[in-house]
Amino acid sequence: MKGLIPLVLGIFGTFTFSWVGLTVIPNLQIGHLDPQMDEEGTDVYPAPKSGMTERGRRVYAANGCIYCHSQQVRADYAASDIDRKWGERRSAPRDYIFDRPVLIGNMRMGPDLSNMGKAAPAEEENAPPAGASPAGAPSASPAGPPAGSANQTASSAAAPSPAAKPAASLAPAGASPPPSAATAPVATPADKTKTDEYSAAWHHRHLYSPRSISIDSNMPAYRFLYEKRRIAGDRSADALQLTGSEAPPAGWEIVPTYDANCLVAYLMSLDQSHPLKEVKGVAPAASPAPAAPGAPAAAAPSPAASPAKGGQ
Amino acid sequence: MDATEIPLKAPSVSTDVPTSNVEQIERALIDASTRVPVLMFYTSAIVWLLIGTLLAGFVSFKLHSPDWFSNVSFLTWGRVRPAHMNVMVYGWASMAGMGTAIWLMARLCRTVLRHPLLLVAGAGFWNFGVLLGVGGILMGDSTGYQWLEFPPYAAIVLFVAYSLIISWAVLMFRFRRGDQIYITQWYLLGAFLWFPWLYAAAQLMLFVVPVQGVMQAAVDWWFANNLLFLWFGAIGLGTAYYMIPKVIGRPVYSYHLATIGFWTYALFSSWTGMQRLVDGPFPAWMITASIAATILTIIPVATVGLNHHMTMQGYFPLMRYSPTLRFTVFGAISYTVFSALGVLISLRSVARYVNFTQASIAYSHLGLYAFFTMVIFGSMYYIVPRLVGREWRYASLIKLHFWASVYGIGLMILMLLAGGFLQGANMDNPSLAFSESTQTILPYLRGRSLSGVLLTVSHFVFAFHFGLMLFGLGRTSSVPTFLNPVETEGSEVHI
How far apart are CA A21 and CA B213, in angstroms? Predict the structure, then answer.
């Protein structure tokens, strides 16, 4: 071939074709979505997240959680994500409009986290997401079943049974369907530390020592997000409840750093349970309680109104 | 095609060539002019390769032994993994690819390299950018976009470095001799132009004027896939188009096939990428378009494969002797396998199982290692002796390098593919706990770590051998290093 000009034009043309086709046109289609509102303009979804939650997103991105955890639920005809109770409906572009960076991921060495916040026990959702409160409050909520269902994450060895009372739900008895994993000899903390599954305290424990919660987990521990310090005066309210070899020596305690609190706040803000008009839900859900616009998404649908998920 | 360019008569660095042979002197001058920059690119690339290999071993072991170093923030798995990936992509593969591309361009433009300092400065800036980026990732500054984890301050340095390098490429074309543009030059010119557009477009749409929500993921995977095809793929294919005919001393079988292969490649492979997001929160047409494009890449793959095969027809036994040919042909065959696997795992019925599994890691390694890296190794075995004026010292080390690489990457891909399919099948069965799927793959991940040991051996052997060459400890000989003793009739071949 002679002539440089046709070659360069061709190289430029093929590139432009692909760039326009795969980024510019889709951006016109789904790049400028607004939150969904009902007629009164009160039930806004999704809402922007709080500053602490956004910082948690940075921690999530910086430490590469995305290389093992996805945040997208595929439709029921395409995969078994919904059967796995990772969500009630498929994810849609509108779920992510405030996400930057968007962390949908493409690997699942760990479970999907799209609805991790939805799984939090009841009082957590009303509590500030700081995780600063002694989360597994001694009298666990009478509201009963943590909204998340048994199988929400595999790392849950002791899955709460919706029928059981909260205290009982900590025992591995009412475990998830596959007995093989669920009955694994987990060093169950249930008797010593009252930690509701997917509560802030549970997340901290899981981040600090994943295998103390699920023996099968191959998640790395994120101990550098925690600080070991001498107890001055009273034990800190947010100190981790650790047992056995994990426990710090007497007079010492393990407390989350600010980054750890942000990360947990972020994880607990992940919730795609709000219905979207463009997505057909699997179960026609009761309308969720309105969330105050601008409120942290962690405080989104109140548990009372949220559809009983995974009705088993 | 430029008939005077291929085949070459003899390897040509030694200055005592017969003065009658003007072409040889000319080539020797061109080679000499590329000496400093190309060796700088190669040396940097090999240092990055060793760093990336160590990081890879760490990542691989930590995936099945997660309790290592959990107190150390910069050694957490989620930071070392992107550090490894970026070191390999921007440190090793890009630098080695640019080194080879520069040498090929100078040869094919038949002009001495002007302003080599520009390139040396470019390589220096590039190294600095990669160092800054990897440091940023380890310190917790990753952007969270896969393949684009380098924080913006490192991306800017890379872009400046690249501008220096490309301005050289433009100069090179400006001063080229002869009207003919060989097929390798098409691919290289394509790569040199596509890369900055790609990188700039992705950076603009993610950081300068960020797009909303899931479009970021679309831009990210569009970039990642095009980097694989239009940057690495184009350099790799261009190199193979040069090395195979050159070594066996025979022109490319069909120039028309090469032309068709190039344009269909540019057209179809640039539209792939969205199949990595199959059934995600995107309009279905985007994903379907990418799946269709992936299937259509069968056309360029078939034409390129057929062309190489027909060129090699009857010359396959030469792979017994020539290191360059052996690595390059292995890479060219891997390209076909890579593309075939790409078609297979893009189909929705298969992607249902392999999306979100380690099979996608196998796919990336097949492309970046089994294809691209092996072709680049081959080109280094050809080019380095012509730059340093010495021949490779030990045929045994080359053989060790080759077989450790082949068995290493072969084992890795088998393990990740088999493990990935099982992982995906278990994940798709909701009656099994999720942890079943990760437990299933653990033995395969241990097997992958074993393959990492082989690859580490291979890379350190190669780096040692390269170091010998760099310090002038190669053989002084007018005969290239053959892998096996050559029978008399093979000796006229230029290996």
Answer: 18
Helix (H, G, I), strand (E, B) or coil at B80: helix
Is A103 in Cβ contact with B214 (below 8 Å)?
A: no
For A249-268, the pLDDT digits (tens) are: 888 999 999 999 999 999 99
8 Å CB contact between A156 and A216: no
Query: Residue A212 has which token pair?
Result: 């103390």
Q: How far apart are CA B495 and CA B488, in angstroms?
A: 14
Question: Distance (Å, rounded) from C-alpha B168 to C-alpha B156?
Answer: 19
Within chain B, which residues score under 70 in pLDDT? 1-20, 487-495
Asked whether residue B341 is assigned to any structural domain, the reply reads no
Question: Is A185 a residue whose pLDDT tops 90?
Answer: no
Q: Which of B316, B334, B217, B192 is nearest to B273 (CA)?
A: B217
Q: Is the pLDDT of residue A295 over 80?
A: no
Tally of domains within chain B: 1
Contacts A310 to B, Cβ<8 Å:
none
DSSP characters for A64-86?
TGGGT-------TTT-STTTTTS
Q: What is the CATH number of the domain that holds B37?
A: 1.20.120
Reported residue count of chain A is 312
Task: Give the other-Cβ count within 10 Å of A192's Cβ.
Answer: 12
Which of A4, A66, A91 is nearest residue B281 as measured by Cβ atoms? A91
Q: Do B218 and A21 touch (CB under 8 A)?
A: no
CA angle A244, A245, A250 (to 5 degrees): 80
Interface test with chain A among B81, B434, B436, by most A beta carbons within 10 Å:
B434
CB–CB of B78 and A210 under 8 A? no
Shortest CA distance to B109 belongs to which of B185, B39, B164? B185
Neighbour-count burial of B59, counting CB atoms closer than 10 A to its CB (0-12 exposed, 13-18 middle, 19+ buried) = buried
Give A138: exposed, middle or buried? Use CB within 10 Å, 0-12, 13-18, 19+. exposed
- Give residue limits of the domains in chain A: 125-267
Q: Which domain holds residue B52?
A: 23-178
pLDDT at A67 over 90: yes
Nearest CA to B195 among B52, B296, B40, B90? B90
Q: How far apart, in whole angstroms, are the C-alpha atoms of residue B71 and residue A254?
A: 13
For B69, left (φ over 0), alpha (ψ -120 to 50), or beta? left
B355 to chain A: which residues are within 8 Å by CB? 79, 106
Is the minimum CB–CB distance between B457 and chain A shorter than 8 Å? no
**Quick one: pLDDT at residue B348?**
92
pLDDT at A65 over 50: yes
Closest CA–CA distance from residue B433 to any residue of chain A (Å) = 6
Number of neighbouring beta carbons within 10 Å of residue B160: 16
More reliable by pLDDT, B6 or A21: A21
What's the ipTM? 0.89
Phi, psi of B270 (to 5 degrees): -70, -15
Q: Count of alpha carbons within 13 Å of A59, Cβ hemisphere only?
A: 22
Q: How far is the CA of A171 from the CAs of A168, A176, B240, in angstroms?
A: 6, 12, 62
- Cβ contact (<8 Å) for A62 and B141? yes
Radius of gyration of chain A (CA): 22
Question: Structure tokens of B317?
Answer: 């036994």
Inter-chain contact B430–A154, Cβ cutoff 8 Å?
no
Residue B112 lies in a domain: yes
- Predicted TM-score (pTM) of the model is 0.85
A209-229 residue pLDDT tens:
998 888 888 899 999 999 999
Residue B47 falls within a domain, yes or no?
yes
How confident is residue A2, by pLDDT bands cut at 50, 70 and 90?
Answer: low
Q: Which comes out higher in pLDDT, residue A95 or A128?
A: A95
A224–B73 CB contact, under 8 Å: yes
- B368 located within any domain: no
Give the CA count within 13 Å in the CB-facing half-sphere of B378.
33
